Amino acid sequence: MVIVMGPGATRENVEAIVKVIAAAGGEAFVSRGVSRTIIGLVGDIAQLAALDLRGMPGVADVIRVSAPYKLVSRDNHPERSTVRVGGVPIGPDTVTLIAGPCAVETPEQTLEAALMAKAAGATLLRGGAYKPRTSPYAFQGLGEAGLRILADVREETGLPVVTEVVDADDVELVASYADMLQVGTRNAQNFALLQAVGASGRPVMLKRGMSATIEEWLMAAEYVAQRGNLDIVLCERGIRTFETATRNTLDVSAVPLAQRLSHLPVIVDPSHSGGHRDLVLPLTRAAIAAGADGVIIDVHPHPEQALCDGPQALVDGDLDELARVMERFPPLLGKVAAGDLLAPA
């Protein structure tokens, strides 16, 4: 069961409901989004249903949800959500470009990449300070030094920062620098980390696990939501299949499917799915055409020198075409590029 609180509900109203549920032997999980608060209930359904929850102050509705992912399901939230990151919207009315270096290497490289991304229409800066890599000998990121670089570049460019956190113990530190926390594919079912980012107070980008089904992906999002955070953006980044010609296989069908099952925004990572520079723009077009609410793309001023994923990073000529894609494609879907929405009149 899910209790939907009205827009005027107070903290006291919410606490009163939590106490009533606890007295009935149940457990209540309070999740707060930008526009409303939802309380997920766990316990004896028959006993909870006998309570007069609809009559309690602040309650807008009480809904029986059959989907296992109750808080992120469209069953309890028919209208799709918009998540705001530092004032930048990601949702059904916009196409948001998130771009920047896969890994933060130096202040100069990060700033140059951020300026390239911004010129192409990016409104959020991606950059990895912590890099979980397949090989223990590969570049693992600069850690807090990288976070400080991202914060400095945000100050200079005005772009809010999206960066990955890989350990539950680091969530507080990363959240003190970042505007949005990213959970990568390798941690998509790291439940302790999902719970920690859910309690962080920051919006969360949740990448699909490389072998995860849609339901497993949404259940991972439920872990975040259950800890009080409904500001979640799902990211389809390609899944592992038998195909070796691409780094991963972009599951374009995941975009409309996840949007039908969940109210959360859905974006696509064409860089990590294709793994090759010449595939990024075609996959970007495909993602927007499928209805994606945004894309997250690797950019690097000197990809031949990159310490991480240089072959998939876009360069100047590619970014000119990316800017044209962001200008032309969203209106065909009845959307607007977030950069145009935020541009001064």
Automatic annotation (TrEMBL):
- The residues covered by the DAHP synthetase I/KDSA domain are 87-327
Q: What is its EC number?
A: 2.5.1.54
Look up the domain of life of the source.
Bacteria
InterPro entries from the UniProt entry: Aldolase_TIM, Class-I_DAHP_synthase, DAHP1/KDSA, DAHP_snth_FXD, DAHP_syn_2
Q: Where is the DAHP synthase ferredoxin-like domain?
A: 1-66
Sorted alphabetically, the keyword list is: Transferase
Q: Which GO terms describe its molecular function?
A: 3-deoxy-7-phosphoheptulonate synthase activity
UniProt cross-references to NCBIfam families, sorted A to Z: DAHP_synth_Bsub, PRK08673.1, PRK12595.1
This protein's name: 3-deoxy-7-phosphoheptulonate synthase
Supply the source organism for this entry: Streptosporangium vulgare
Native organism taxonomy: Bacteria, Bacillati, Actinomycetota, Actinomycetes, Streptosporangiales
The UniProt gene name for this protein comes to aroF
